[in-house]
Design a protein that fits this description.
Layout lengths: L1 H24 L16 H10 L1 E4 L5 H15 L9 E4 L8 H6 L2 H11 L4 E10 L21 E6 L11 E3 L9 H5 L5 H5 L6 E3 L7 E5 L4 E2 L8 E9 L7 E3 L1 H5 L3 H8 L4 E3 L1
Parallel strand pairs: 10-11
Antiparallel strand pairs: 1-7, 2-3, 3-9, 4-7, 4-9, 5-6, 5-8
The structure holds 2-oxoglutaric acid (AKG) and fe (ii) ion.
Amino acid sequence: MKEVFEKVYGVIKTPEYVFKELVHRVPAPFYKPDFNVDEDLKENFRQLQTNGITVLDRIIDAEYLELIREEFDAVIENQKGSNPDSYHSIEPFLKGVCLLDLALERRILGLVAQYFRKPFGLSRTDALRLLPTTAGPHGSFQWHHDTRGKQLHAMILLTDVGADGQAMRYLNGSHRKVYSYHRGRQKPLFNKDVSELKIKNISYLVGRAGSVALFDSNGLHAGHRNNSYTRDSLTFCFATWRHFFPVKVRRGAFDKLSREQQGVLLYNPKLTII
Ligand SMILES: O=C(O)CCC(=O)C(=O)O
Ligand SMILES: [Fe+2]
């Protein structure tokens, strides 16, 4: 009985749900982006639009990467994660200024602005260290979408990640999908959907340390755990509506940002400046 009721409820709720999601995707008519796509990233932008994912190869130089890595180590120290053999922090901006500068990097924001073509904010942050593990798939390490509609994640690799490493997988082109009410709210229940599809449609989030992947988390993706080697990464999420999580920054670091970068932070109603 409960099942039938849920099914019927889903059918009734789906039109409104789909309508909201489609409106959410429409660009703002008079939007003037504060950030633009560099000429050399035009191909990446095309890939992002077509596949829902693109990797910018090593856009962070070695010296800056060293500083980022030092700050990252301080951020995750003692922060044991809920995933097996992992360290995790959702407050990466309290130990220095490098990680905040990175989250608001001009080239990343250029791609985000062009992708949404409407105002957006930094909605969530994750610093994650995945140690080698024998743990099987669970949580975000199974096929899922993030249940927040059109949203961009910038995942910055701080260590080299090859196809043999703990590389996220992404189902190319799945970012366009509009889900029904229930499918739109289900998390890791898509394993079956993907195993039935052809492997050639899948991108691996691989790259050298300092590479940045941008992907639309409305598309299906799966983190991957294995016993190979450690993966360190930072993920900065950008959203245009509703799906904002608390983000904390320090006053001194905030004041040093450009007005446009500050705007990306202030767009998040859950921003705290301390
Ligand atoms: O860390 C991973 O490989 C998975 C990340 C993920 O699911 C996400 O950023 O939405
Ligand atoms: Fe995800």
